[in-house]
Every structure is written in structure tokens, then in C-alpha cells.
Amino acid sequence: MAEAYTSVPLSPLRKVIAARMAEAARTIPHFRVVVDIEMDALLSWRARINASSADKVSINDCLVKACASALMEHPAINAQFVGDAIHQYHSADISIVVAVDGGLATPVIRGADRKSVQEIAVESKALATRAAARQLRMDEITGGSFSISNLGAYGVEQFDAIINPPQCAILAVGSAKRRLVIRDNGESQLATVLCATLSVDHRAIDGAVAAKFLATLRGMVEAPGVLETVARPA
Question: Which residues of the chain have pLDDT under 50?
Fold first, then answer.
């Protein structure tokens, strides 16, 4: 009689992922804040950049830049929970969740608040390539202050992400869809809308703080001209 299932042994990478995710789910009191963000202005901005630059920029690169800029205005989100203290970082070191064969990698774009979106694009591509080849160094996957997990390319509209400890927050990004939006004046208009879900550690961050961060992020994405300049000097 044929076996009813195939037993797949856990790889070393999958064992690490399983242990860390179980620890995070067990020890971190998660709560989530969800916001819809209109993407049309950012898509136009990205198209202008890509039309004049050899270094092509993805939507995720734009969101990394927007998150980095928003984190500088909300340092309580740009944090790690360490022992009996909360470390609020002065630089937005953003971990990008990358799918690799048999698991995930979280390479870090350091100082994303000080980099242009084109610089972020070049670095993120290089990190993703090395992640796929299992060539990332330990210093390239540790020490992030915030994470972004984007499943939009897979058609996922909304999901909840588990925090990557000791970080205090992670943004889950769904796919952008055309929707009918009702304006305040009652008029309806088609818009490209993305759902973003922020998971936060309630030990370090309260709901109002998380909501204010998402409001700032939404404002930057919907008026992306503010992202054209580097936020602050190195």
C-alpha cells in the first residue's frame, strides 16, 4: 500500500525559522493595525524615475524608502526590545524578507533613511541575489530595526506577519488593486489601493503610536515627492 504522505526532514534553515517564529509567537504580544494606501502617485513617480535611470526601482524599493523616512519621524517604531530596555535606533536599518529555497532570509538595508530610492534598489537586488545563493554574511542579516514582508507579487491582498525579534514591528504588504474609492465629497473614483498591515510588539508600542506611523507612511506614499531627497546626512 502506498504511503499517505511524504515525510520531509527539516533542513537546518527551516529548523532555525521554526524556532524563531515559535519564540516570537509565544513571547511577543502582537497586535495589528491596517491601512489602505492609494498608490497611483507613487506609481507615476516610480515610472518617471525608471524612465531616466539605468537602475530600475521596484514598488518594494519605494516602500522601503517611505518606511525609512516615516521611521525617522516615529522613533518608537524603529526599535528593538532588549531585556529590560527598548533600544530606539537613530538609523533606519530595514530588514527585507526574501524567499529562498527552503525558507526565508532577512538581509538588512542599513541607513535606508539616508539613501535615495535608486541606491536602495541597487542594494536590495544585490542582497536578494546573494540570499538566493546562500552567500549572505552574518552582519548582513542581523541588527535590523524594522522589517518589511511583501507578498504582493503573489496576488495576496492582505496578511499578518510575525515580528522578527528583537525588532518591535514588521510591515506586511499586499498587492495593489484597482478599487472604487468614495471621496469625502461623495464622488467616486477609481484608484490603485494597497493594503498594509503593521504588526507591533505591545510591550514597546501602543496603538496610537502605530496608527500615527501608518498615517505618516500613507502620506509619504500618496505624496512621494517628499522621498526624492535623502532624509539626512550620514
Answer: 230-231, 233-234
